[in-house]
Design goal:
With 92 residues, the chain is mostly helical. It is built from 3 helices and no strands. Helix 2 runs antiparallel to helix 3. The chain is rod-shaped, with a radius of gyration of 33 Å. The N and C termini lie far apart (96 Å). 1% of the residues are buried.
Length: 92
């Protein structure tokens, strides 16, 4: 009788141990997926930061101001274009 009870208890412990190891494997898989996703998000963030740096750089700002000045007419457009060439951007 005691032997049967011990055997059932050991079988229950073995089943629980297998279940815990299975859950551990599932959790490790989910953690790895999250790490991979984090790497992708960081790469995307890095690319956006590089693009923002390019778009806000002095050369690109001067180029864009020059493009805007071409679309303006009259004295105001010439004034903006001249300020761009001189390295001065008037904010009026």
């Amino acid at each position: 009788m005691r032997f049967g009870l011990v055997l059932v208890a050991l079988a229950a412990i073995a089943v629980m141990l297998v279940q815990v190891r299975r859950q551990e494997t599932v959790v490790r898989h989910e953690m790895q997926q999250m790490r991979n996703e984090r790497v992708q998000v960081r790469r995307k963030l890095w690319d956006q930061q590089v693009r923002l740096g390019y778009l806000t750089g002095p050369a690109r700002v001067r180029q864009r101001v020059g493009e805007v000045a071409l679309h303006r007419s009259g004295d105001e457009g010439r004034r903006v274009a001249q300020a761009t060439e001189d390295g001065i951007v008037d904010r009026n």
